[in-house]
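haha ok so turns out i had the wrong file open the whole time. this is the CORRECT one, sorry everyone. sequence first:
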Amino acid sequence: MSLCITTPIQIINATNSSNKCKNRSSFRKRVSTIVIDPDDKFKILLISSRKNHDKWKLPGGGIESNESITTTAMRETLEEAGVVGRVENYIGDYENPVKKTLTYAVSFISKDVYDTWDENDRNREWFSVCIALKKLEHHDREMLFDYLYSVVL
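then structure:
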């Protein structure tokens, strides 16, 4: 079941000296966005890794202090992919014990795709969901599977 996001989801911060939010397990909180073509909900925008342009991933990044999931999703998607739009649904949260991160995944309907953006040293490309699943690594692939599950139901 998907939850339609009409107001920003706010993360309650633990008090710490870092400007990044942490959960009670000291995992870094972050957001990943599944950027969807507004005309085709099975077409997904992926970005390349900064270090390896052959490695594809979902846009996303760390939640700043006092920042909502929605605001982080919008900021990171613009910075990393040059896309503006709106958060549609909350997909779920995913722990990565190796990287010590807690990632909140959201679906994001693209509105405008800019020719230049903050991190335009990255590649970006629209893929069918089937191809995107093959290109993504485990954690991002899990988020995309959950998105598909929410769309099909």
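The helical segments are 69-81, 129-135, 138-152.
again sry for the mixup
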